[in-house]
């Protein structure tokens, strides 16, 4: 009965946390399972967002745990990343998989002796699912992980589609896109996304679509996509709140500029001035909770012509990080480079 309930939860999950909860509970219910993990590819495949079943354990007072996500480098040599990179299932005892010694020792500390990791989708390489066992894996363990990985991929794809559905409406009920003169000038758009691993991909598609419609040069679009991906991932990992993405093309003397902003609604105290000063002073990541894969805000500093941060939001706490990219007039025959 428990297995049927969890299975139904996977099919009906309304968010990524629901998918993670369902598959991880189902895997850890298997005989001799020690833990399980779900990894979702992000940042153009440079990193994985990982949720471990450990986070679902009840607190001391019996309160159920909630999924928590952390980042791992997609190029680390561990079973989950191997499964994503190769598109093939990785299965075996720890001492047969040629894994880094530090990783093996950590897993043994949990009582793990073997791992089965299967890609969510062998072609798209969008993530992987892993089962950590206290015994050598049996064929049925491998089959179970592969079936669940495929089902998780289907559920996540459904959620990704939903995340970029209808445009988000502004507070006054108007559409989120504004074309003030119909000629490609003064355009602005906003999108609100859930604080989930699907958000960075949805943000990239949103920004790419809007800037493409407005005739912005591909080089500028590429820079904007890198920055929005880093900023939204930052917000999701470190606040878990909804994320507002805004993008606009503004007229300036001699051309135009693209202004991109990402606002979270977290309550952590951040001094925007200290944040900017830290990055420009050589601390490429800024404060520890704003570092993304060792690049984060340093990437903004390198790719944009200017950037900054402002605390607060119209409806309470939060932080908005913005960046500017120089461009030629989108109404001209050719839109120039990034102007960096």
UniProtKB/TrEMBL annotation:
Residues 199-307 form the Histidine kinase/HSP90-like ATPase domain. Keywords: Kinase, Serine/threonine-protein kinase, Transferase. Residues 50-156 form the GAF domain. Residues 164-192 are annotated as: Disordered. PANTHER family: ANTI-SIGMA-F FACTOR RSBW (PTHR35526:SF3), ANTI-SIGMA-F FACTOR RSBW-RELATED (PTHR35526). Residues 168-181 have a biased composition (Acidic residues). One of its GO terms (molecular function) is protein serine/threonine kinase activity. This is Anti-sigma regulatory factor (Ser/Thr protein kinase).
